[in-house]
């Protein structure tokens, strides 16, 4: 390249960099000015603020989404109440600013606080909205989106040792996003998912209006109850049904290993469960239905339901239940995850293939969640979550690593994608189903430039997450948010002829 061309190229780079910088400053200033009617200090943070990075990283669960290569928000807004969120949505729509919403920061691809799309964005962090109001007379609880499920569990148990909530195993999950995807938990075979126990919700729509179940309409309430977060509005709070639990429950953790000849490594399996009753009754059931495990009384522990939450989440018994009020996660890692649903037993040859592949990777993990019980009796169309009758168990694949380098990420991505391909012969087909709360951008994503995506393109992930419910979700989206204001990498699209 000639010196003249090189100088022009460098000049162009400087101009483009300056233009991007100016655009970022413009977004920060115009949004901040619009929010000025709120007049609350310490709620708006730009990258120049010394607390910006600390706040951004505060609830992010997947460390790979915090590496420098991932785009960061132009600003972070931490609303204190519903009015603040109304104002933020109205300002963003007026100014054409893209928004992301974070309740717990557990999105597997980090799309609540980063982006794989080009348009710059502002993050709305819900962590200051975490009220929990338990009503034993009504057998329900209202919980704000920024509260964690651990906080929710604690506040319910604080009121009654005989009531619980059917929701997630990981106690640092933000309630807002967790419930919108389905909400798996250790009581799902008895009481179903979190969305199966959702009674009401409050959201802010694209026009800044606060709506409850009646005013949003049943189609939209159905859509947000399992259709994934960030599609229809900002979840402010959920009203959930309380479920009965005994004063004493039983848990166990039984580990088995698979010896592989002379190799230094082995496959370890852990059988982890909650039983809503005493240990003697559990042993009768297990010895009759699953004698192969060889469960003994010494493997089991009786405790309160709240203590079982800590046990299932992996906390040592020395950690007090008050730790749930901190909202802190038990583990932080760099990871990539995928999911499958299994409808036929995996043959022994298939299991041998699994062991062989697991032994080739550093820190692979498979989690199998058994179905049955109420999960097999709820209709596929009762909520957008369709993975019901006929499913034996769900698989979650997780590949974990400990360094931020791109080469490490590429290596571990390659392994989990090859493993996922191998598992295709043993899992559901047409579509190969996936769980929306284990978001996987390998399944496809909306147009990178942020424009509307076709129904056909979005079906590549939409049908995997929602099967035949996807079309109903699209129709509800088209009617409720025709301008497609609420959108992200795998958001529900609007139908042709609608929107902007």
Description of the molecule:
- This is FAD-binding PCMH-type domain-containing protein.
- InterPro entries: BBE, FAD-bd_PCMH, FAD-bd_PCMH-like_sf, FAD-bd_PCMH_sub1, FAD-bd_PCMH_sub2, Oxid_FAD_bind_N, Oxy_OxRdtase_FAD_BS.
- Keywords: FAD, Flavoprotein, Glycoprotein, Oxidoreductase, Signal.
- Pfam families: BBE, FAD_binding_4.
- By secondary structure, the protein is of the alpha+beta class.
- It is built from 14 helices and 17 strands.
- It has a five-stranded antiparallel sheet. A four-stranded mixed sheet has the order 1-2-4-3. A three-stranded antiparallel sheet has the order 13-12-14.
- Strand 8 and strand 9 form a beta hairpin.
- The radius of gyration is 24 Å and the shape is globular.
**Which structural class matches the secondary elements?**
alpha+beta
In whole angstroms, the N-to-C terminal distance is 43 Å
Q: Tell me about the biggest sheet?
A: 5 strands, antiparallel
Percentage beta strand: 15-25%
| Tertiary shape | globular
Please give the count of helices. Answer: 14
Model regions low in confidence, pLDDT < 50 over at least 5 residues: 12-21
Q: Roughly what percent helix?
A: 25-40%
Main β-sheet, spatial strand arrangement: 5-6-10-8-9
Number of strands: 17
Integer average pLDDT: 92
Radius of gyration: 24 Å
